[in-house]
Amino acid sequence: MKAITSSLRHFVVQKARMSNQEAVQAIAAGRVLVNGQKGQLNQALRPEDEVQLDGQVLKEPQTFTYLAYYKPRGVESTLNPTIEHNLAQALNLNVRVFPVGRLDKESEGLMLLTDDGALYNRISHAESHQEKEYVVTVDKPLTPDALEQLASGVVIMGQKTRPAQVQPLGEKTFSIVLTQGLNRQIRRMCYKLGYAVERLVRVRMVNIELGELLPGEWLTLTDEQIHELQQGLPHQYIPNLPK
């Protein structure tokens, strides 16, 4: 979600209907507070910031919703009401939140849901290299060579996947940590190596883990989790949410 203006000075000029010089003087004199602290002339405003001038609120802080959700198998990662078994129908929430990082219909596990456009883009951006961890079960025993190829990269859709962290968890089960999100990437990688995926569960996104959530359950992220998530992400992004 975009800031209202590019700087505190511009915001005060527009909102308080001051001249540029009057706004500069008010900010320099400490009459303008951002979240209770003296504002700076070229300070960029965020949606969650509160701005006061002489004790009067010019801008209310905008609050966001941050949820960790266990998407069950069979639910489509879309809010489109025309698609059967869509996410909005499954969630049945009274707020409109957007899925961060899609899971295909046959996959399950952790999905972050938010109406914070900045966070949405910082995680979703293809070049941000954010970690996503999955537990995968395939149809036959895994060979050391297959595990090595999954880790080093597999050519799918005309490109080689980025190196990944891969650990065997059982004869036919492994965990994999990806830093990219190609369409049906894990399924395509396994298929290329002669395996069919029987179960695929996302168990972590950046610092948020699936934990004890059961299919269909969701919980609100704590302030600490949100802070850690924001601190661990790059700061260059285009703040938008999908239509």
Could you please describe the fold and organization of this structure?
It is a single chain. This protein is 23% helix and 26% strand. With 243 residues, it is an alpha+beta fold. It folds into 2 domains: 8-59, Structural Genomics Hypothetical 15.5 Kd Protein In mrcA-pckA Intergenic Region, Chain A; 66-231, Pseudouridine synthase. The strands form 3 sheets. Strands 5, 6, 7, 8, 11, 12, 13, 14 and 15 form a 9-stranded mixed beta sheet that branches.
List the helices and strands and how they pair.
Elements: H1 8-15, H2 20-28, E1 32-34, E2 37-38, E3 51-53, E4 56-59, E5 66-71, H3 87-91, E6 98-100, E7 108-114, H4 117-124, E8 132-138, H5 144-152, E9 155-156, E10 159-160, E11 165-168, E12 173-178, H6 185-192, E13 197-205, E14 208-209, E15 218-220, H7 223-231
Helix pairs in contact: 1-2
Our count of domains comes out at 2
User: Helix proportion of residues, in percent?
Assistant: 10-25%
CATH topology assignment of the largest domain: Pseudouridine synthase
Mean pLDDT: 88
**Portion in beta strands:** 25-35%
Counted beta strands: 15
Low-confidence stretches: 1-5, 234-243
Structural class: alpha+beta
Shape: elongated
What is the string of SSEs from the N terminus onward? HHEEEEEHEEHEHEEEEHEEEH
CATH class group of the largest domain: Alpha Beta
How many helices in DSSP terms? 7
Name the CATH superfamily classification of the largest domain.
Answer: Pseudouridine synthase
Separation of the first and last Cα atoms: 12 Å
Can you name the CATH architecture of the largest domain?
A: 2-Layer Sandwich
Rg from alpha-carbon coordinates: 22 Å
Q: Sketch the major β-sheet.
A: 9 strands, mixed
